[in-house]
Design a protein that fits this description.
Helix 1 (8-30) packs across helix 10 (260-286), helix 5 (103-117) runs parallel beside helix 6 (147-154) and helix 5 (103-117) packs across helix 8 (233-244). This protein folds into 4 domains: 8-91 and 256-285, no CATH class; 103-247, 3-Layer(aba) Sandwich (YojJ-like (1); 288-379, RNA Polymerase Alpha Subunit, Chain A, domain 2 (Beta Complex); 382-472, YbbR-like domain (RNA Polymerase Alpha Subunit, Chain A, domain 2), CATH 2.170.120. It contains 11 helices and 21 strands. With 476 residues, the chain is an alpha+beta fold. It has a 7-stranded mixed β-sheet, with helices on both faces. Strands 9, 12, 14, 16, 17, 19 and 20 form a 7-stranded mixed β-sheet that branches. Bound molecules: adenosine-5'-triphosphate (ATP).
Length: 476
């Protein structure tokens, strides 16, 4: 990248790519998919190095495999992509906040009390996203929260203590709800299914899940696939209040734990990777280059009463300029020079080849063309009757002689260019008839063979019948 190339668009381009890389990394880190991502990053790095070293073979493999790889990645990351889109769709949705200011203290106190007494519990506080698709079973409660009610729900003598309690709009909405268990290795196997279930829902949605550990006598909060053990009631109140605060898209993405130093380092790395990508691949693809290619010249049909005569140019060499990626994708067969004969009147015409009669892709410019113009001879047509002359090849076998070669029809009505050339058309011929194998009177069907400038009046050439009559040579 030279200084001249450093426009505001380039800077914006790099910043957008950096932001994309950073958010992608953060999202995948939160979802615990970073192992796959690091594999992809190593592959990408390998490609960048190969590109810098100009290793054509490796580049070729990457270019050809990349389309399949993109589809595979979409399939592989389908759950993550779905989650990203769902998250984006629910960004504007309002969160169902509890209205009672005493709610937070009440919940925190219940959690602390249960931790002290060693009562296992899971309480779910949904965020903006609908969690219905992830949870199952459970019983509708719709009750006003109170300390005795929460404690009795999770009392292990109570039949409804198994499963999670869902809190919506500051009310106890349902109990005994089953959550999706996390398949991630992020949470140590020292934790049991309660913790893995809380982790599972926090990975799949933006819900906050509070867990009280029966064994550890400890409260932990799960949000965005991260577990945070909390010691005091004040910390628990703060965590729940924080969850209900309107979170902007940036905060959601930054919500994975990390110090300012780590986040700063990640942002700097994203910018660095974006710059390397831009310099090695993107700017390379956008670099303007020139290319010379040969393309076919195509002619449309003429008007009814005229015909094109004389030599026809078949190919033109185009000198083009465009970005490396645009020129690499050019296919000469689909971008020929098109000469429109439909509206041309009789006479000699010169058609200049320009961008207008070429089907060039957007962004590709025509610098020069050889030939610069094409001579087109358009002649009026005359209607004449031309005899059909059979094309007889070889000779009749020994002992036989040909007495006649009749053609049906004997002549055909044709259009020929009028003027001086008109008289040069003496006849039209047929596809060959090989005489060497003819031992008796034979009839064969042949096609008409005529120059391009001779056209049948009836639009299509009829098949012609050739009768070859033979007889035995008389021995003298
Ligand atoms: N998918 C689930 N959804 C909701 N709750 C679940 C789910 N799986 C297990 N639980 C709850 O977790 C309890 C079992 O907890 P377990 O002891 O296996 O987990 P743990 O993480 O070790 O928790 P603790 O530290 O409290 O022992 C079950 O009785 C049930 O109440």
């Amino acid at each position: 990248m030279t200084y001249q190339q450093l426009s505001w668009q380039t800077v914006l381009d790099i910043l957008v790519i950096s932001a994309g890389l950073f958010f992608l990394y953060r999202t995948l880190l939160r979802l615990g998919t970073w192992k796959i991502v690091s594999g992809i990053l190593v592959a990408a790095l390998f490609f960048v190095v190969a590109s810098l070293l100009d290793l054509k073979g490796v580049e070729w493999v990457y270019r050809n495999v990349s389309h399949v790889a993109v589809i595979s990645l979409i399939v592989l990351f389908q759950p993550e992509l779905r989650k990203m889109f769902e998250r984006a769709a629910s960004i504007r949705k309002k969160i169902d906040k509890p209205q009672d200011p005493g709610f937070f203290k009440l919940i925190a106190e219940s959690l602390v009390r249960m931790a002290e007494s060693g009562t296992g519990a899971i309480i779910v506080f949904p965020g903006r996203e609908n969690i219905a698709q992830w949870v199952s079973a459970g019983f509708r409660l719709e009750a006003q929260p109170s300390l005795p009610l929460i404690l009795s729900i999770f009392d292990h003598h109570s039949p409804g203590h198994d499963g999670a309690l869902i809190v919506k709009n500051g009310r106890l909405d349902a109990l005994g709800v089953r959550l999706p268990v996390s398949q991630n290795e992020r949470l140590s196997s020292d934790y049991g299914t309660r913790h893995h279930a809380a982790m599972g829902l926090s990975e799949k949605s933006d819900a906050l899940v509070a867990v009280v550990s029966e064994e550890r006598h400890q409260v932990a909060m799960f949000k965005n696939g991260q577990m945070t053990p909390l010691k005091t009631q004040t910390d628990i109140v703060a965590a729940i209040q924080n969850h209900y605060r309107a979170e902007g898209i940036f905060k959601q993405f930054l919500s994975t734990k990390g110090s300012f130093r780590t986040i700063g380092l990640e942002i700097a790395s994203s910018v660095a990777v974006a710059v390397v990508l831009w310099v090695t691949i993107i700017s390379g693809q956008g670099e303007m280059i020139e290319k010379v290619i040969s393309v076919p010249v195509e002619y449309t049909a003429t008007a009814e009463n005229v015909v094109m005569t004389g030599e026809k140019a078949k190919e033109a060499r185009l000198h083009l300029s465009g970005s490396r990626s645009d020129l690499a994708d050019l296919s000469p067969s689909t971008m020929g020079v098109k000469i429109d004969l439909a509206k041309m009147a009789a006479g000699k015409q010169t058609v200049f080849i320009s961008q207008d009669n070429l089907r060039l892709p957007k962004g590709v410019r025509l610098l020069d063309v050889d030939p610069a113009s094409i001579e087109v001879n358009i002649s009026k047509l005359s209607r004449i009757l031309l005899p059909v002359k059979p094309q007889l090849v070889g000779s009749i076998p020994d002992g036989l002689r040909m007495t006649a070669a009749r053609v049906v029809p004997e002549s055909l009505l044709v259009f020929v260019p009028s003027g001086d050339a008109e008289k040069s058309y003496k006849n039209i011929t047929t596809t060959p008839v090989y005489l060497d194998n003819i031992r008796e009177n034979t009839m064969v069907y042949c096609k008409v063979v005529a120059p391009q400038s001779v056209q049948p009046v009836d639009k299509r050439w009829p098949d012609v019948e050739i009768q070859v009559m033979v007889e035995a040579k008389s021995v003298k």
